[in-house]
Recover the amino acids of this structure.
């Protein structure tokens, strides 16, 4: 299945350490070799870098690490194609404007038999179920609200639309407008919130570690969200099945979760992915 990576923090931060391990899953430590993309919010702007080549060997990915872009909200995606050919137009994340803001979306899963009519405001350019779902979500929001609603009402409606879309299949996704980052788990999503006192972290996919206390201030707070944990010596929390959360300033500020909360093992998540037709 595809791999997702998100970062939400209270001060502009680079994602170099997390991305260093993450990118290796794109054709080296894992088989996700059908392209990758990463979007950085910078104020009201978005810097989007994509390649339809394997992330582990992409010069575009090299640029991400060398550039060390700092941002408060980042979404990255490594693709294992399920619907839509391997092409730049089908590479995540996808970006659209709504209410005078850029919104960024990336999806891991497979929505079967999800067909939408042409929207009044939003239509997909490529042929993935992911972009179609993103356009549908935005279309529903724009049809309901001419102007951007308050965050509490917005989160409630996004929750409602998410419930509708996940009926079509696997729907792990991340969504950000540069202020907050929303994450939804159909199966597997993990997160960690790093804040003082900071310690050392070691990557799972490469023999690399970092002492965060040497590169942070006592006031920094950074949330990292990913399909599978990136480090082996930190405690990662898991989102429950069908849980939707909103991160802002490096912490969870809203959440929607079925009760009792249910969690699945990584092995169970991979089995469900195969049953849903997601290539491994």
């Amino acid at each position: 299945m595809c791999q997702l990576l998100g970062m939400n923090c209270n001060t502009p931060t680079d994602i170099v350490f997390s991305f260093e391990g993450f990118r290796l899953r794109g054709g080296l430590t894992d088989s996700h070799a059908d392209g990758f993309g990463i979007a950085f919010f910078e104020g009201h702007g978005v810097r989007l870098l994509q390649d339809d080549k394997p992330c582990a060997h992409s010069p575009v990915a090299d640029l991400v690490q060398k550039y060390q872009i700092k941002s408060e909200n980042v979404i990255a995606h490594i693709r294992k194609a399920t619907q839509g050919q391997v092409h730049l137009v089908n590479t995540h994340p996808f970006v659209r404007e709504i209410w005078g803001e850029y919104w960024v979306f990336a999806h891991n899963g497979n929505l079967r038999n999800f067909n939408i009519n042409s929207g009044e405001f939003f239509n997909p350019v490529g042929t993935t179920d992911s972009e179609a779902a993103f356009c549908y979500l935005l279309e529903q929001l724009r049809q309901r609200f001419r102007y951007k609603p308050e965050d509490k009402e917005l989160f409630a409606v996004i929750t409602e639309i998410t419930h509708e879309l996940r009926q079509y299949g696997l729907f792990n996704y991340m969504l950000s407008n540069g202020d907050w980052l929303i994450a939804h788990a159909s199966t597997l999503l993990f997160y960690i919130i790093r804040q003082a006192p900071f310690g050392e972290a070691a990557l799972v996919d490469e023999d690399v570690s970092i002492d965060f206390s040497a590169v942070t201030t006592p006031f920094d707070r950074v949330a990292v969200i990913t399909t599978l944990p990136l480090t082996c010596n930190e405690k990662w929390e898991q989102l429950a099945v069908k849980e939707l959360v909103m991160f802002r300033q490096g912490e969870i500020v809203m959440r929607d979760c079925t009760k009792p909360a249910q969690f699945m093992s990584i092995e169970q998540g991979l089995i469900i992915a195969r049953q849903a037709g997601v290539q491994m």
Remarks:
- Residues 129-144 form the longest helix (16 residues).
- The chain has one domain: 3-275.
